[in-house]
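To: structure subgroup
Subject: Chain for Friday's discussion

All,

I'm putting the inputs and outputs inline so they're searchable in the archive.
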Amino acid sequence: MRSSSDQSNHNVFDFFTGKRLDDARRERFIRISPELDGLEILYANDSDSNKLFSLKILCWALRENGEVVGLVPWLNNIVACPEINDPLNGKFEGYYDPGLEEIFHHAPIHKIVELESAAEYYESSADSPDAIVQEIPDTIGTHAVLSKRGSHSLTLSEVVSWRLHFDGSISGMLVDPEQVASTPVLPGDSCLFAADTCDSFRYYFQHQIANKIKSQDPEAMAAISALVDEGS
């Protein structure tokens, strides 16, 4: 039987997503697992209707409702692959295994089994929504672009790890150089801080774009400058 408080929550909708609050809570991520076999996401956008683009998947995530999805750093957040969106109407087209050259639309069964087993074994509770449930290393060369508002200078900072919090949010962790006590810096080190707590944080990029920015590639610099100006 549904309690009166549950029934009340069932009829309350989130202003921004339009979803019921209890449905939204059940979509929170409760466990993550790194993608170690090079699987990718395929997406299309309005820049070229006949072309598909790809990004490496960072990890797979289990939602409280039992769904398993791939996650990628996307603009200024980390998002579920089926939910990507961008200014050019980015649209999820499927997952891709470049080794087998196969396209599929659901999480691999071995990742589902791994996540479900781990979630059952490490069933967690916490007193605070931001309590750390897991921390995994970044394995795809993600960089954060930092730029103070009103400034045209950019700083690229490597993402060392990703922290899953009890409320389901995931934070990319960057190094504070002034706090480094020993090297190499590893996940969990005290010198790490969440990118989304930094006022100058703008976007995440995988290593291919980050390397183009580092080499001052004209097209990459023009694109990132436009994004930074738009977000200022």
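Points worth raising on Friday:
The chain is about 20% helix and 30% strand.
The chain has two domains: 26-123, 127-232.

D.
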